[in-house]
Design brief:
seven-stranded parallel beta sheet; about 55% strand
Amino acid sequence: MLGYSMLNLTDSTISDCYASIYGGAIYSSSIEKLSIDSAKLLRNKAGEQYGAEVYVNDAHKGTIIANSVTEDVETATAFYVLSSSIEMDNVKMSGFAGMASRGAGLWCIDCHPMKLNALNVKGGMASIGGCIYLEQT
């Protein structure tokens, strides 16, 4: 998903998808807003270790992930967010199969503002930040 568009993904399941580089389930770059609510993201993977479930680069009005579940993350780092505000509320992540280099659940670079509420993460493994890795450039 590229350009000045918005994606509202609600009451959906995305499973067993693969991207050879980034964004196993969803890849977005330079968009207005990405909103995921009441979704199941299952067994998705990306060839690089960024965004097995979701990859976001520069969402102008932010990224919101709520009331959602991700399970059996087959490659490292479930959610990769770059240059976007991020709000995660009532998100469950489990079943990480590999070792992430940074933040198995969330790798966030230049994310401001950031709000994380009611996260439930089980089994995240990473060289730095087993669950969440934050970086400001």
